[in-house]
Each structure stands twice: as C-alpha cells, then as structure tokens.
Amino acid sequence: MILGLLLALASALATNVAFLLKYRGAVVAAPIEIRHPLRSAAALFRSKWFAIGWLVAILAWVLHVGALARAPLSIVQAVLSGGLVFLAVLAERFFGFRLGRWQWFGVTITAAGLAVIGLTGGGATRPQHSSLAALIAVEGGIFAISAALLAISLHRRVLRAEGLLLGLAAGALFGVSDVAIKYLTHADGPLHGLRSPWTATALVAATIAFYASARSLQIGPGVEVIAFTSVAANLAAIIGGILVFGEPIGSGPLAIGARLVSFCLVIAGAALMPSHESEQREPDPTGPPLVAPIRQ
Q1: Which of 54, 73, 128, 253 has its CA 20 to 30 Å from the CA of residue 61?
Q2: Mean pLDDT of the chain
Q3: Whole-model pTM?
C-alpha cells in the first residue's frame, strides 16, 4: 500500500512535467489534422520538447500502472490529484506562466476536493474485486460522453472553449484507460491480460486521448487545459473505482457528506481556472530552455 502511494506521488509529478513539456512542443508543431493522423503525430514528435514530454509521460504511465497494481483506484487518484498543485508551482517556477489569484484558488480547492473524494472512499479497507457488467457500462458511458465533447468542440459557436472541451474529452478517455488497466491488473497472468479486449479498449482510449490532448494544448490556454484534463481523468477513474471495483461511496454519513461537498469544490475550482488573469512571459532566447515558454 505504501509503495503504491509513493508510486502515485511520483507519477503525479512526472505527469505534470510531461504535460508542460508537451505543451511547449505542441504549440510550435503543425496543427493536428484528423484526416492525417500519422502525419500529425510525426509533426508532433519532430518537436523536441513534445518528444521529451512524451518520454516523461511514458515514465509517468509506468509509475501509474505500478501504483494501480498496489493500491485501490480511488486512493491512487486521490494522490494523483495533488498533481494539480505540482502543476501550478511548476508552471510558474519553470515554464514562465503567471497564474492569477483566482486560478491559484481554483487549483487549490480542486486538488483538495479530489483528495477528499479519494481518501473518504475507504477503498483500502475491503478486498478489491471487479464487476464486468459495471465495467462495460462505465467504459461505454464515458466513451459516449467523450464523443459528445469532441463533437461539441467542433461547433463554431464554442470556438473559444474548443481547447478546454478537448482537454475534458482527453481526460475522460485517459480515465477510461486507467479503469481498463486497473481491471487488467486482476487478470490471471500477463498473457491473459494481453488477450483481453480491455487491453484494446485501453489502447484505443489512450490513442484518441493522445490526439485530443495534443490539439487542446495547441489551441487552448496551457495551465487551464492541463487542469481540465487532469480533473476529468481523476473523476472518471474515481467513478470507475466506485462502480466497477466496489470501492464504497463513503464509510458513513459524514464521509458521504464530505464527498458530496468535495465534488462541488472540484466543479467550482475547475470553473475558476479559465481566468483572464493568467499570463505568459515572452520567451528569452538567451536564457535556459526551460525558463520561458513559447507564446501560443
């Protein structure tokens, strides 16, 4: 259990470093074209910072899988939610972002709300089991919501919010992948896991999320898009933990009430993120490469 929590903490840090590096690379790469996925992926990886960020993301994913194998899903996501605080500190300290007061407040209450949601689940107090029927329902439902968000993002009337909607869709699909991976940790041996249709589900969800996330970083405000992606991924995984793996909603009325309040905090904090107070400093071509970002 302790090892799982440490792996989750390391994954949270690596995930946000990866997102910020990928953001720096994505904004200077050619725009993602849905009709040319291979060409678009090649253009992204020709950007040095995106390629480095992707390698860091692979490390974060390995750490995440290790955490999922050793701790309940909701507890892992509670630790990962602390990554929102990592995001804000890293963005201001090393990537040239300047967050507004309300954005800092939004990040803080969102991270706190997600942590309480995970920690009040009591998932560590009961043996882990899984329900195939619930897995199908949850994965299908989140896929449908993600598809709707992707479709809405293409509408001209929401052009300003396109990046945020794509970030939400990407996060939800990352959550689908996390739930499928957690289910696969229950498989009887690695060979059975590789043959499982949920391996394909995780890969399809992660692939669509890759393109949606990259495009959201290209056209949306960096910190806000990353925060929305993280919130969506955390909530999708926490819902999966409750419905698929039988992790309790709470251990009593107080815990259930705390979870409901925390959910409201998450929504309120996410709503505060798209603020016009945040700024980015101009890049300094003579300074260290990780000090100032390239303006969108």
Answers
A1: 128
A2: 79
A3: 0.76
